Amino acid sequence: MKQQQQPTSLVSSILAVSFAPSSNVNAYPQSNANKVALKLANAIKFKTISQDDPDIKTDYQPFTDFIQYLQQAFPVLHSHLNREIINNYSMLYRWDGSNPALKPFFINCHYDVVPVDMSGWSVDPFGGVIKDGYVWGRGSIDNKLIVISAMEAIETLLNRSYVPERTLYLAIGHDEEIGGYNGHKMISAHVQSLGITAEMILDEGIPLLQAGFLPGLNTTTALLGVNEKGYVYFNITATAPGGHSSMPPSQQSPIGILAKAVTAFESNPLPPPNSTLYPNQFLDQFTQQQIETIPFLDYMRRTTTTVTMFRSGIKPNVLPTTATAWISHRVVPGDDVDAIIERNNRLINDTRIKVIIDAKLPPSPYSSPAAKPFKAVKQCIKKIFGQDVNVKSGLMFANTDTRYYWPVSPNIYRIMPCVVNSQGLAMLHGYNEKLAITDLVKAVSFYQHIIRKFNNIDLDTTITDID
Q1: Annotated catalytic sites, by residue?
Q2: What is the pTM for the complete model shown?
Q3: Which residue intervals define the domain Peptidase M20 dimerisation in the entry (predicted)?
Q4: Engineering a disulfide at 372: which of 118, 348, 355, 459 sits with its beta carbon 3.0 to 4.6 angstroms away?
Q5: What is the per-residue pLDDT across 276-321, written as a single tens digit (0 to 9) for each?
Q6: Can you say whether residue 461 is alpha, beta or left, with left for phi > 0 and alpha for psi between -120 and 50 degrees?
Q7: Helix 61-73, helix 9-16: angle, nearest 10
């Protein structure tokens, strides 16, 4: 445990702030709801923005301040758990269990956020606004929700003198939004260097989908991710002689050459692989027609192809000498990354086009929904969010930092412990991201139950309610 530092002026001012109690916390204890809502709201005030634009330098002072804020906001946790700072800005906490024979488990999350376009927000995205029963701001769900609710769960259990048998690691990365190369990649490398393997890793995933989120989804459903897509990112560049637009050459322009290739990609989507290789309980509840016609379901069953950027030309009257397009494939389990690259070359079939692979990653391993850890998480979801919630295994179609933990555990699951409606997913990297305070309280209870559930040696014991 590192020596505690005195809070900076920003941290001091945040810790001194209070707010009027919300009137919309339903049946949850008002004092508990207000307390954790304020902690999340204060966490949002730190502009821990990961910049993927190479022309914009990331400001790491808010990251340092955020680490200090956590230390002040959760004093009991920091007095009991061992904390290691990894690569300056990521954190690995260890809550030692009383039985070293039990494999530990991990709760993973991150605290960096994506940049914001201020024009579309109705509140200050970093103001820590609490109103109408919601905590508003960038990161309120993705992903400071998990950071704050998991820490609050641990803090609460420690205040009740709870002692776990199984060791818990809380791993918090600082650059997930730009690939996690300096955060969770380094945490996992450290964990593996210590020879640690885990019973389970629980990371962010898709929020619970409210009934009516999709046609045919008649019950609130938790898609508990058991695997996730891989990816292939590549760019293609065509070249041709330039010149003045008043004297065009006889050969095709680089824009025309590349447009033909782009059209070939968009006109030839990859077919779905054999679905029996990687069962998807979530998709199984829909008809084939629904799967083929509802985009949310369709891109869950196939490798997607998108043209994300196209650049060429410098002036209206100057013929460009090059044109470049960037193509993104999100690769579904069952498809092979290298086979997709070969297929792309056949589709292009033009020596005037140069292909460069920017990055690639195969789909993740499949974590069985028949495993005890999956069943334990499923029970906790139903315990907190309602016995009528339909919990299904399925594919996490985005990428998470779990890619770095494949060697650490065969049981890697993904869930965001809150409920969204049909407009809710767009908030996560879009405008007016907000979290219902009732969901925040449920998230705290969810992680309390997860910790208590995994304290049991065989994971089979039914846990009782937490007051």
Answers
A1: 112, 176
A2: 0.90
A3: 228-350
A4: 459
A5: 678 899 999 999 999 999 999 998 999 999 999 999 999 998 889 9
A6: beta
A7: 40
